[in-house]
Every structure is written in structure tokens, then in C-alpha cells.
Amino acid sequence: MTVPYEGSKPASKRNRLARYCRTLLAAVMLSSGTLTYMMPALADGTDAGTEIRNTAVGSFQNPNALTDPPTAVTSNEVIVTVAEVAGITVVSSALPEEAPAADVTSPIATQGDGNINPDEVVYYTFTITNTGNDATQFFIPDAPSDIQLNGTGGSGGTLAGDIEIVAFDQNGSSPTDLSASPVAIPAGGAATGTLTGIGTGSFDEGGSVTVRVPIRLDAGLTDGDVVKVVLGDTAPNDDTPATQNQDYIANGSDQDVYTQDNAGTNNGDTAGDPVNGDATNNRKEASATSEATVGVVERDYGDLPAPYSSLEADGGPSHFIRTDAGGANDLFLGAGVDAETDADIANGDATDDAFDDGVTVGSVSLQGLNV
User: Fold this and answer.
1) Over the stretch 244-277, which tens digit does the pLDDT of each residue have?
2) Which of 22, 69, 175, 178 is most buried as measured by Cβ atoms within 10 A of its Cβ?
3) How many CB atoms lie within 10 A of CB 309?
4) Apex CA 253: angle with CA 272 and CA 160, to 5°?
5) How far is CA 93 from CA 97, 117, 295, 339, in A?
6) What is the DSSP string of 289-340?
């Protein structure tokens, strides 16, 4: 930018010119850029309350006195505060599996045998994650919004006990396993901040809770029947992007899964409400589905990549997941065993799956070592 003036000006006029140029530069920056004094900014991945500061600098030269030194100018500082944004996802985080016979009231003889049979209790597992940029609680309902049989709603099974939190991770990097002492969701559902046993019940960006939903399958089912459980209620409840991180809509079902902002600055929350979500309470909601097929025997696969044959279609090796009389897995190498629908050859080195890292000498794992 060049601001011309004629002749050699006295110091007072040069100072007035510099002030004028600074004001002009600030106005140009504000009018042509995306930063303003008026609005908070939405910044994906940036913590709520973060200040973004910007100052433009420049210099101006008198075109009629090019031998004079340029006049340096600095704009007014523009400060933008990143707004609090709510966000949530719900995903099916494990294949449905039989509940151990010891966990079931009046189990049938096949409960825990590795097959998913009619009249058995099956655990459906979901993970709820904070995808916003500030700490939040989650509201978890006391029942799924639907249990479907072969695509037909309201059939296939019934809730067989409390929905339970079986793991939580308050900051996205420090998971805690609660499977041995799960936290039950009370009648009517609850915000996580009202529950005990899961820290403060508030979860930073990336923080999550994992819940399991116990469903007793109907006794009249036959092999091949598919029982789908829906946790949350964001139509069309089909696991498309449209079911994730939606503005909360009160639909009267009381089976929604949604964010609930902390009060004030509790739990490190940024003061004020999120700028998105529903107009009443600034909440976001999500849902997910999980399917169990009757008659399917749970298997564990190896995960070696090509040139080894690992996938089911290639005849890859697998074994049935066997349990003892108490319902505990009793055939595996390593820390445990996980059910899979097929080999995961993208995880051929088992770096993110402790259940596939099963060879040790003494207490030293051979995973990743050349022997």
C-alpha cells in the first residue's frame, strides 16, 4: 500500500500520517480478512477460550521523496477468542458377545458356549466420545432406543439388566477398565457427572466412556436371524454421518445420547455455553447400531498381511472362542482373546491389539523383535 504526499513534511505532519496509515491498515485487515472484533471463532481442534492474536505491520514511502526513510506502521491488535463447541460420536466398539453364564440370571445351558443362541443374554458394546473442544458430560439413557429383528423395529429381544459403563477415559489417553466392577445407569438415565466411579464424570476433548447393553434374545429366533440394537436416537439410526453429532432434538423417547455442558467453570470448563447444538441447552447428540447374528460362532483370527493367508476368504486360520464353566475365555495366547468377523491385516504387527501379541519369553514380549 502506498500513501502519497507532496514535499517534505514536518515531524508533526509525519506523525499524523503514521497514525492515519495505522488506522487505514487495521481497517483494511479487518475488512478483507476473516478476523473481526465482533465474533468468537470456531476452530476445529483448538481448545475453547484460546485467544488468537493478530497484528499487521507495514511501511509507507513518500513517492516524491524516495530518499526519505519509510514510515513504519503497526495495526491495532485483533484478538479472537475461540468459542466453545460441543461435539459427540457414538460407535459400536466391539462385536456383540455372549454374557458369561455367571452374569446371567437363570442362564440356559448354552450360555457362554461361544455361540450366539436364542434365549441367551448378549452384550452389545458402544463407545461415546467427546469430539468438541471443551470438557463435557454425557447423558446416557437407561435403555436402547430400539431392538430390531431382521430390520423390523421393536422385536428380537429385551433389555436384560442395566446398561453399564465398563470403561472410561477422561482425557483420551488414560483408559480405565471397569469390566470387573461396572457402573450401572439408573432408571431414567443419567448425566455422567452424577455417577460415581468414573472420576469427575466430565470428559475432555477425545475423552470417552464405553457402555455395554445386555439383551436377552427372543427364544423363538432361528439361525441367521439378525438382532440389531440402537443406542441413541438420531434418525435414520443407520450409522451414516447423519447419525453423528447432530443438534439435540427432544423426541419424547428419553433414549437419546447427548452432551451436557458443565456448570460454570467446573471441571476445567470454559465459562459460558457452547455456541452450537439445540437452542435450549446447546446439546449435541449421536447414535449407533450393533448387530448380532444368531448361530454365529465367535472366532479369533490371525492378522498377518500378505503373502500370508489371513482373511476368511483366503482360508486364513482362526479358532473358536472357548469358555470354561464360569464363562471365562480359556483358550488364548497373550493378554486375552477378542472376537472378530475377519482378520485385520492392517494390524499385522499387532501394535494396537494386545490380544494379538501372544508370544513371550519370561516376561519379555517377542512382538516386533528379530530372533
Assistant:
1) 999 999 877 789 999 999 999 998 888 889 999 9
2) 22
3) 14
4) 110
5) 12, 21, 21, 12
6) EEEEETTPBPEEE----TTS--SGGGT--EEE--B-TTS-B-S-STT----B
Choose between 63 and 89: higher pLDDT: 89
The C-alpha cell that represents 217 in the structure block:
434374545
What cell numbers appear for 105 in the block? 440370571
Q: Residue 291: name the closest of 219, 225, 212, 343 by CA.
A: 225
Question: Rounded to 5 degrees, what are φ and ψ at 88?
Answer: -155, 145
Q: Let me know if 280 is exposed, middle or buried by CB neighbors in 10 A (0-12, 13-18, 19+).
A: exposed
Three cell numbers, residue 275: 455456541
Interatomic CA distance for residues 238 and 345, integer angstroms: 26
User: In angstroms, rounded to a whole number, what is the distance separating the alpha carbons of residues 57 and 371?
Assistant: 61
CA distance 90 to 145: 13
Lowest average pLDDT, out of 2-11, 225-234, 327-336, goes to 2-11
Is the Cα dihedral 142, 148, 152, 158 positive or negative? negative
- The helix (run of H) or strand (run of E) holding residue 210 is strand 208-217
Reported as a pLDDT band with limits 50, 70 and 90, residue 341 is: low
Query: How many CB atoms lie under 10 A from the CB of residue 237?
Result: 20
Q: Comparing 134-138, 237-241, 304-308, which segment has the lowest mean pLDDT? A: 304-308
Query: 257: which residues sit within 8 A by CB, 6+ positions away?
Result: 88, 90, 128, 138, 139, 140, 141, 231, 232, 233, 285, 286, 287
353: helix, strand or coil: coil
